[in-house]
Design brief:
562 residues; elongated; six-stranded mixed sheet; six-stranded antiparallel sheet; alpha+beta
Length: 562
Amino acid sequence: MEGTAVVLSGIKELAQSFAGLASFCSSETGLPALWVLDAEGEILASSLMDPGPGPGFAFEGSQLIVDDLDDSLRAWIRNIEWFEGTGIWLVLIDSVDRPAQELKVLGRTLSSALELDGRREIESEDTTVHLLSLFEQIRAMHDLADALPSCDSIEEKAELCLGALKLAVPSRVSMVLIQREGEREHLAFAMTEKSDRAWTTEYRLANGVGDPIAEVIQSGSLTYHRVAGRTISEPSPLTAARKDYLIVPIRFGEEENQEIFGAILLMDFLGEDRDVFFGNPEAELVSSVAVLLGLLLGTERRIHAEKEMKLASTIQETLVPERPPSWHGLSLASRNMCAGQVGGDYLDYIESEDGTRHVIIADVSGHNMASAMAMVMGRTQFKSTLAQISSPARAMETVANGLFPDLQRNELFITTFLLSLRSKLPGGGYCGSFTNAGHNPPLLFRATGEIEDLEGGGPMVGFLHGIEYDEVEIELYPGDLVVLYTDGVTEAENEAGEMFELEGLMGVVALNRDRSADEILDSIFEAVARHAGPGADADDITVIILQVTGQKMTPERKQVQS
């Protein structure tokens, strides 16, 4: 067959082109080695300059295998119908040290290019034309992988991808949809068969079912269909499709923990035959572009997120006091333990110019940069407000109203407890007041044996604007103990899903209440750790122990003092 001879004589050049394409899979030196074999397993070409003896190939039944493959290497093998009556084997061998996904992406890209060309009816006089077309596809993919990382904007990335797709899979319209971070809107970049520049618009993901684009983005699975018999309503871009369409998600990460950034959409396959539609070969090629774009976007966002988290962690470390202050008549101990790199808990000690001493514990929703910045703003406002206002309720109102616009914009809220100790009592102790903005009520263990919940105040900060808070008067006597905590303590779960609960906290404190503040603090964290066990998904844990020192107050002494 003259056509077959022409095809096989071009395989060597094709293998060399494939080897060039392989470079996009690794930034390291050394490329995956490639072999092309005929249907009987005879080597037609190799990407190695001096392949030497090379690996051995054999058949197990109808499957080609690599003989005696070294443990440090892995192989990817696929049988391809080059065109009707001519089958070839594509073999890629690479180090196991490099991710297997890279080898799979490369293999799918190369085999899909061959399968796409094999779908066409090739005659001897136009075989060279088809080979050149295939080389154009390979070169477009290679150039795309080489140029994408240097793009400064998402617009540049999208236009490069659309240009490569125009060469690899001819279609009347091609689009790249990229979701705006944290929003449902997608930026839509489009290119037609007659243009070389992309135009941009916006696309809002449809609710529910009925829009194939939304279904692909939500499911993470590609799809291709003919338009005939399918009803697609506005405002989906697919309403412009005349013959068929192909949609491939832009993904990053493994299936169980993947992120989907958008989709690539092609409308109306431009084959020479009007009855030729998008199929698996086109889907594989477009998937290769989607993998490249998803890998780049995911890596960039992950690096950005890691930098943001590191900065947020640094900010948080500066907010939490290294040690409690030394206030006369009080023994203080506190600790903040983050479940992740950035926590949402906050504690502070502030002393006003008039001598009023304030103890604050708070829990900010979220574990990101926005949460860290909310903590910074809260700390700043509390410090400036409490310098002028000694009333905890009035201070809470001022801070809540000041933070409300930023918290609402970022969909955050803060639960806060503020205890203010104004003056000393005769014989020891303090009188003061507190307000509670939706926080877990601290526990007051009286020296006389009673246990009280410090409730009263109002809703969490950021819930509504203009809220007024109640203020509750309190007297603390020598021997009294106050335990302030966040919900990470009481909601800590064990393997059975059982929480530590308030009863667990009260039991630990009751057993250790005659010990020092530091020892009580240690006992709480140890008890929570034992309950949760190793490897448990924990929340942030913050605890403050406030112990009123001096001779313990008996009921008789308390009555006389009153």
